Amino acid sequence: MVSRLVAVTYDARDPARPARFWAGMLGREVVEHAGGALLPGGGTQLGLRFAPSPRKKTGPDRMHLHLTSTSLTDQQSTVEAALKLGAAHLDVGQRPEEGHIVLADPEDNAFCVIEPGNAFLAGCGFLGELACDGTREVGLFWSAALGWPLVWDENQETAVQSPRGGTKVAWGGPPLAPKDGTNLQRFDLAPAHGDHEAEADRLVSLGARRLGPGPDGAVELADPDGNEFCLRRA
């Protein structure tokens, strides 16, 4: 038994704004899902969900997206499209010689438009990576939880990817940014097969911690780094 990664959920003051933005960027439809706005992923591309929340960001994002480019012209076209849809440039201390461009969506969620020729993201598709703050332990946990093989494991940095390819999920290793309350981004899972309570027990056996019941019979948990995630019914 394994869990299926339905989407990465972002808390948002106005979920419709980032949903419209990312629908325009990714060419996807927005559907209603569990009280939020969902952009379903394909077989190999990550799904995104935006959930209503009054909370404001108080620290750096613990997850951010990487979009890929096929050329410098393509990279600039992606940046221009993002700005037209409501994104803004973001300074996170990046150096001029670094090729990626950092932006923020209309809800101030950071994302990067990666320069062409990035070998790590070759063949991953336009939504190439979800980059996360996290330890090697948490990368190993998510590999087992999702049944996705490790495709990178060096210097405390890890990455996993579906056996079918597509978007990678990566953890940058220590030092970790301080965790200030509940994360504004989290994984939404569903059991690939079988009962979600049995799957919750399996996740606990791998190192997760139960936090309590969630909406509509879901189970709220935390991974070994303390990051909250939700296991919904199939």
What does the model show?
There is one protein chain. The chain has a single domain, classed as 2,3-Dihydroxybiphenyl 1,2-Dioxygenase, domain 1. It has 234 residues and is α+β, with helices and mostly antiparallel strands. The radius of gyration is 17 Å and the shape is globular. The chain has helices at 16-26, 72-84, 136-146, 196-206, and strands spanning 3-12, 31-33, 36-39, 48-52, 63-67, 88-89, 101-104, 110-113, 127-132, 150-154, 157-161, 168-171, 185-191, 209-213, 219-222, 228-231. The chain starts with a strand and ends with a strand. The strands form two sheets. The chain has an eight-stranded mixed beta sheet with strand order 2-3-4-1-13-16-15-14. It has an eight-stranded mixed beta sheet with strand order 6-7-8-5-9-12-11-10, with helices on one face. It is built from four helices and 16 strands. A hairpin with a 5-residue loop joins strand 14 (209-213) and strand 15 (219-222).
Radius of gyration: 17 Å
Helix content: 10-25%
User: Could you say what the CATH topology is called?
Assistant: 2,3-Dihydroxybiphenyl 1,2-Dioxygenase, domain 1
- Within CATH, the superfamily carries the name 2,3-Dihydroxybiphenyl 1,2-Dioxygenase, domain 1
Q: What CATH architecture label applies?
A: Roll
Q: What's the pLDDT, averaged over the residues?
A: 93
- How far the N terminus sits from the C terminus, by CA atoms, comes to 13 Å
Note the main sheet.
8 strands, mixed
Strand order in the largest sheet:
2-3-4-1-13-16-15-14
Strand content: 25-35%
Name the shape in a single word: globular
Helix-strand topology string: EHEEEEHEEEEHEEEEHEEE
What's the CATH class, please? Alpha Beta
Catalogue the unreliable spans: none
Structural class: alpha+beta
**What is the count of DSSP helices, taking H or I runs of 4+ residues?**
4
Taken together, the total number of domains comes to 1
